[in-house]
Structure formats: structure tokens, C-alpha cells
Amino acid sequence: MQKQLKAHIDRLKAAGATYVDARWYPVEEANYLMMWNGNLKETTSSRESGLGVRVLYKNAWGFSASSDMSNLSTLFDKAFDNARVAAERVTFPVRLAEKDAIQASFKSPNQIDPFGVSLANKIDFLKSMDEKLNQPGVVQRASEMMFVRKQIVFLDSEGSEIEKNIIEAFPAIQVMGVDSSGETHSRKFSPDRLGNTRGWETLDIQLFNENAERIIRELNEVLVADPCPKEDRSVILMPGIMFLQTHETIGHPLELDRILGYELAFAGGSFVTLDDFGKLRYGSEKLTARADATLTNSPGSFGYDDDGVPAQDNLLINKGILVGAITGRQMVEEANAKAKRQIFDGSSGANRATAFYRVPIERMTNINIDPGEDGSLDDIVKNTEKGIILDGDKSWSIGSNREQFHFATEIGWLVDDGKVTKVVKNSTYKGETVKFYNSLSAVGDESTWVVHYVDNCGKGQPNQIMQLGHGVPVCRFDNVRIGE
Amino acid sequence: MKEKILQTLTTLREYSLSKGVTVAFIYHEEDSYLMRFANSAISLNTNEHLIRLEITVYDDKRRASYEMITDLNKLDEMKQGVDIAAEMVKYAMPLNYQPSIPHINENYADVQGYDPALGSMTGEEKLAYFNEATNGLETDKITLSGIFTSGTNILAQISTKSEYTQYFQTSDAQVTIVLAHTELKWEVTAEQSAHKKDDLKPEELHAELSFLIDRYKNEPAQQVPVGSYDIVFGAAATAEMISFMNWIGFNGGLMKRGFSFLTEDHVGKKVFSEKFNLTDDPSRLETFPLTRDSMGMPRQAFPLFVKGVFQKFTWYQDDADEFGAQPTGHSVPHKSLVLDPGEMDLNSLQDLVKMPKDKDILYIPFLHYMNIVNPSKALVTASSRFGALLFKKDGSVVIPYNVRVTQSLLDIFGDKVAWMSKHQTVYNTSSSYGARNPVAIVLPKFIRVNDLEISHSNSSY
């Protein structure tokens, strides 16, 4: 197949294309199981294969994809024709940042291939979890696991040929209960990425059992708790919500396509401008954020992106100052040209597509916050006069330029005079992004830092779902409005 | 093509019967095209032709599914899919209820929503549409973004319960145009939905955008104080809220699982304003309807709210099986929601400007990134976007920076509703992350709701 793909790439190059690439998925498999209140509601497997072709012609992109590989000529020609039409309306010529031609392969680290584990074993795991979650106070309980295996072959007209074999596992449990006023509350758990691998071995039954007990206990505390007060407090964000705060207000606003206006018709823009790089005080000096696609155990690590650029570890925010972005080959060239200065030295290797039938766009890798020097969670609590600890994402809504946000969390613990005083329900907080990060007053040490995965990040038109990770510590922000 | 698809399904059914396997098949074929604009250029021009086959095998109370992206020439691969699902079901755990198996009673085909002219629109035609809709409106500082997506969708079904098939074919288009100021960062939008090519009227979008651009270029902008406002919601904003109501409101399965603000006690009770009449009406072609559900059940107009009184929950077959409810014909990828018009004769933004005001009125055309803060209370939050206006009592117009609304749907559609426009529009809410699934809501162009709280107000665009 690679020979045929190369031949078609060469054919389109000879016909005038500036650049051509092909992403062939010989196989992508998924396996999803979900048990709800003892019922195995989902036992689903899926398999797909196909080819996506991207053509750059007269400074414009065309893309075509099909699961039917029997007529490659038509597929390549369609992509070329789409580029030809797009070339009728070009305002800024598409240029691609330099990269090396790479012949390589990448395999995600796994000890046990989840696709080699029997369905019976997987169901046993879910059944065990379901029984564990069936406790007083719990009226709804759900256990689920999703496994993904992708084989991707990438070839381009610049001589790259890369094969990736990626396996991911996404297990989770959730419990729900109803309080005396009839309101539903929930707590959930999905394991942080503790080891160095990404296979079946990450489903640690003991870890799940411990956390099942914890979330049931916490749910029952929420069910009898007072509502979250409406007032200003310091918020102490546990990794279970800090990952989402990072995702929505550091990750998305720093996607370079958003900054350059490529998502205005749908996902939105960014409050960040090209002038801000190297200057904007995004947060306090305690804030250092990075896009690290080299973590071994996270779905945000993939070896090479869908431009064929190697995965990297790049600073985004250095001691509070904005220094980097999430980029692919096209956007860095455009940004440098529009800014009339060299902001970016090259692609940061973050151009990814969710499937063979979608075009690659700037996607988060692992957007992490470096651990700080403010000790453990206990240390931070001890040094907080009037605060609230928040955990568990319940709801999130962000302004179209990522300039402001409103989050709801599953649980809150009020902190007064350095001590945890009580649990509250319906906890929320809101803020303005830059003001919020500049109020960052404490960053937990490595003991608080964990990698949390995201398996459902949506972006783009046609829509795409992407998997990634966030390594984050406990963080405290001051003077934040809660309870609205 | 239809014959080949149905023959393939019939062959797969016969194969399943020969293996002694009880199976239901859902075939989905999409031919999708999307032209995307950014920074006044075509940033992407793409098409995808994909065939998906969902195979669900039943063994008494056990059930397992295998889904594949395939093509019609790969019959052996599809048969392997049956074998895999049949193997999986052996290990599935029995449900504690009896799942219903789709049983189609007669051959049924519905292609009334298919317009070949729409499904086969060329890239050149789409570009011409955009050029007309934005003619003269772009400048060096005001740039065009947007999408023109169109496609053809085929859904076909069979099961081993009968030899009969169901077949649906629709065409659809969704257009979004955004004009944004590159420095000031304001944005205005106009959108259109089409189920046939004649629905596409670029001149209407041009008129809408011209009006908004004129306002945004010439009227003062300001941060409005947080507090209580009378708000006129545009169709996009209302459609977003109705979509959320579809999720956390009248879905029987989610109600049983505690994710609804409605309970069984609400049936027959007044929940919303008397002006609120919402129906699931599969006779409205603008909504890309499915006139039968995946169980073969004919779908009729299904009143959800009449004069604000909640009528009944909708049920997916599987939820109905689990909770002992009567199925309602809602085992479908999407409903066909229609919100009745009101009596206010307002057909355009120009009409809204001319209307005498008893007080300042905030116009919010679009709600960005809505999410559910508390499903039990129908509490949602979102930010305004795309062309908001503040109509002052004195007749002047101010451009408000974006604001956040955190309110309960019970308040928004409750007794605070002042009026609804007697003119309806179709708002396309399609946003499929997987298979193409065109969906639109028919609703009044404008709804005024008094005394709603703005909880945050931006200090700039």
C-alpha cells in the first residue's frame, strides 16, 4: 500500500501540488463497556480503516477521505480538486515550517494489550466495581472502560514515512445520589496516570476499590451538606478540577489557530494576540506551564504529529510570562509573518486529527503546570485564611475568547483559619482568565502533581474529538467569587 | 444505490439466520462536504464519504454491538462483523430486563427530505454563495469566517425479526457566516439551514450582516453593568436552550437516572409560560425528520408542552424496556422540535429596533458554550456572542461587550416570558462528532424574557 500511496503523492506533486500527505489507517479499533446499576448497557466494539489525503495547491488546502480504498486515484484527485477550488480564494499564502524528512515509528508503551484481554475478564472487572459502588446513598452507579488501538501510516511529499501504533485505556467509575430537596449530586473517579505505560495494566483493582470507597463517602457528605456560600474566597483547586481549568483557560487560548482566527466560526478565538508573546503576564511568577508531548503514559503523547513533526516539550508560560503556543507547521509560519518577527522557531508538533477522515488541526498535547514550592495540600490549607477546596468537574463554560469562565464542581470543602471546616454542595467559581492566574498564590509540590487524561476534547469543523493529558499540581487562587 | 444497500442488508440478515443469530442492522452512509473560511480565505475544503454499519446481536437478555466503517463491496468483512458480535454476546452479562429487538412490519422508504440538487452542490457554487452573502462587507479589518457544509445522509435498517426494511435519505446544508474585526475583536454572524437547495438565500444573510456591521461600526460599545435586564433572545440562543431542555428535560430515561429538572409529578402540570408550546413534529421537513424510529414505530406529532403544561416524557426503546414505560417512537438520532410562534409581529432586527421600548432591552442572538450547572434545577450558564445589542429606552443602540447569563430554564421559559415573535425560523443545530446527523429546530425568531440576571460583563470585546 505504501508504494501505491507514494506513487499517487508523486503524481499530484507532478501535477502542481506544493505538498501532499496521506494518512492511512490500516486499522482503528475501539472497545467500550459500560455497566449501569448492574446492567451491562454497552458491550460495543468497533473497527474502521481508511485513508485521508491532504493537498496543498496554490497556497490552499484540499482534503478528501474515504473508507473505500479500491479507487485511490479518485480519492487523491478529489483532494486535489478541493484544493483547486479553495485556491480561488486565498488571502494569506499557506506556507509550512521546515521540518526534517523522517522515517520512523512510534509505539505507545503497554505491558498488556487490552485487546488481548478477554471480554469475560473486562466484564468481571466492571461487575466487581459495580458491586463495590452499590452502597447506601448511591442511587445510580456507573462503571465504564474504553480501549482504543490505532495503527497510522503517514507519508508525505517531503520524504517522511512514519508508522504509529497507539493503545489507550480510559476506565472510570461514577456514583450519584439525591439530596433531601431532590437534587442529584455525583462523584466520579478516573485513575491518574501513575506508571509509565498505557495498557490494561493501568486498571489497578486496588486503586479502584480505594477510590470507590472515597467517592461514595464524599457523595454521602455532599448529600447532607449546606449549599456553597456566595462570597469571595481563595479557591484551592485539586488536580481533579485544575486539569480542566488548565485545559480551558491555558490550553485552548494558546492554540495558535485560535489566536490567528481560524476557529472564529465555531469554537471561538483567544484573548491572546501575537504581540503578547514574550510580554503578557499571564499569571503570577508561580505559574509555569508547558506543552509536553513526551510523557510516556499519557494520550497526549504520540511520537510524531500528523504533520510528521516529532513530539516535543515546550514552555508555554515561564514564571507567569507567555512564551509559547500550541502549534503546527502552517500556523507558525503565518504567525511569524503577521507579527513581522520570529516568535516561533518551528512547529511544536501539535497538529493532530482524530481519525483518517478528519484534517489535522492544532490540538493540545499534555498541557501541564509545573509543580511548585508551596508544599503539600495540607501545607497549602494550613496557610489559607478563608478558602474552599474544590474537586471534580461538574460543569464548565468559557467565554468565546477564553477571557472568562464559570465552573461547577462536584464537591467543596470550606477552609477557615487554616483548617477544613465543612463540606458544601453545588460549589461553583468564576473569574477572568488573566486576573485569575495572576491571583495564583500557591502551587503544590510534586506530591500533589498528577497526570489526568481528557478523552473528549472537542474542536474544529468538521468536529473532532481528541485525547490528551494534563499534569497538574494543587493550586490556590485568591479572591475568587464562588457560589454563583 | 438504494437497491444495493437493501440487498446487502437482506444478505446479511440471511447470513445471520443461517448462523442462528438474532441481529439488528443499522446502515449509515454519508457523503459530506465542508468548505471552511477563515481570515477571508477558504481555509479548508473537504469531503468524506463514509459507510458505517452497526450490528447488534441479541441472545435473550444479552446484547452486544459491533460497529464498523466499511463499504458496500466488503460483504465478507460485514459478515465477519456479525460473527464477532455473535461471539461477544456469549460473554455479555444478562440485563435485568428484556431488551426489545427491532421488528419492522413493512417495507418503508422515506426520501421526501432528499433534494439531489442540494446534496450535489459543487465547491464553486458554495463559494459563489459566500461571495454574494458577504459582497462589499469585508475590509482589511473586517474578515470572513464560516462554514458551508452540505451532504447526503442515508439510514437503512433490517433485523432478523422480519424481512422488511426501512430506508431514509435526506439532504442538508448548514451555513454560518461570521464577520469579525481583526483588531477590535467584535464578531457578528448570520446563519441559514436548508433541506432543499431553494432554501439557500444568500441575499437574506447579506441583509442581516449589513445591518449588524453598520451598527457595530457606528454605535458606541460599552461594558454593561451586571444586574437585571429584559432580554430578547434570538433564534440561535433559544435553540441552544431548547436543545439543552431536550437533554435534561423531557427525556424519560434521563429523568429516571436523576438528570432531569422534570419528574413524573410534573406531567399535566404547568411548568413554563402559557406562551410555551413545544412539539416533536416529524412532519416538518425543515427539521430533517425521521418519520419512523429504529424500532419501526411510526412517528407522529408528539406534544411536549401545551400552554406551558408538560404533557409526557419521550422514551428510547431501551429506557422504556428498562423502566417499564411505553415506548413513544423516540428511538431516533434526533427529534424534530417545533416551538410555536407567538403574537408579536417582529420579523427582523430592523423591526426590533423600530419597536417602541418601555425600558432598555438587551438583545442576545447567540449563547456560547452553554453548560449545565445544576440539572435538577435546570440551571445553565453561557456567554453572549455574535452581534449582541442594547436597545436603549431613548431609541439609541449601544453595543454591549459579551455578558454571562447563569439562569434556570424554568425562569427563562417561565412566567417571565413577555412575548414571542409570530414569525418562525429554522435554526440548524447540527454538530455531529461522529456520523452526520442533520438536525434543526423550528422556533420564533425572537423571544423576550423580562427580568433576567447578567452575572458577568466583559470589560472589552
Please tag this protein with its features.
heterodimer, A: 484 residues, alpha+beta, PmbA/TldD fold, 2 domains, seven-stranded mixed sheet, five-stranded mixed β-barrel, 9 helices, globular, B: 461 residues, ten-stranded mixed sheet, 22% helix
Kindly describe this structure:
The complex is a heterodimer of chains A (484) and B (461). With 484 residues, chain A is of the alpha+beta class. Chain A has two domains: 2-224, 2-Layer Sandwich (PmbA/TldD fold), CATH 3.30.2290; 227-482, no CATH class. Chain A has helices spanning 2-14, 72-86, 119-133, 205-223, 239-251, 256-259, 329-339, 377-382, 433-438; strands at residues 19-36, 39-57, 60-66, 103-107, 140-156, 161-178, 184-189, 226-227, 231-237, 289-292, 313-318, 321-322, 351-352, 361-362, 367-369, 386-398, 404-416, 419-425, 428-432, 440-443, 450-459, 464-472, 475-482. In chain A, α1 (2-14) runs parallel beside α2 (72-86) and α3 (119-133) packs parallel to α4. Chain A is globular, with a radius of gyration of 23 Å. Chain A starts with a helix and ends with a strand. The mean pLDDT of chain A is 96. Chain B is α+β, with helices and mostly antiparallel strands and 461 residues long. Chain B folds into two domains: 2-215, PmbA/TldD fold; 221-457, no CATH class. Helices cover 22% and strands 38% of the residues of chain B. Chain B has helices spanning 2-18, 75-91, 116-119, 123-133, 202-218, 235-248, 252-256, 317-323, 349-354, 409-412; strands spanning 22-38, 41-59, 62-70, 108-110, 142-159, 162-181, 187-194, 221-222, 227-234, 278-280, 302-306, 309-310, 337-339, 361-364, 366-374, 379-385, 389-391, 397-400, 403-408, 417-420, 424-428, 440-444, 446-457. In chain B, strands 8, 9, 14, 15, 16, 17, 18, 19, 20 and 23 form a ten-stranded mixed beta sheet that branches. In chain B, strands 1, 2, 3, 4, 5, 6 and 7 form a seven-stranded mixed beta sheet that branches. In chain B, strands 12-11-10-13 form a four-stranded antiparallel beta sheet, with no helix packed on it. In chain B, α1 (2-18) packs across α2 (75-91) and α4 (123-133) runs parallel beside α5. Chain B is globular, with a radius of gyration of 24 Å. Chain B starts with a helix and ends with a strand. The chains are: A alpha+beta (484), B alpha+beta (461). At the A-B interface, β2, β3, α2, α3 and β16 of A face β1, β2, β3, α2 and α4 of B.
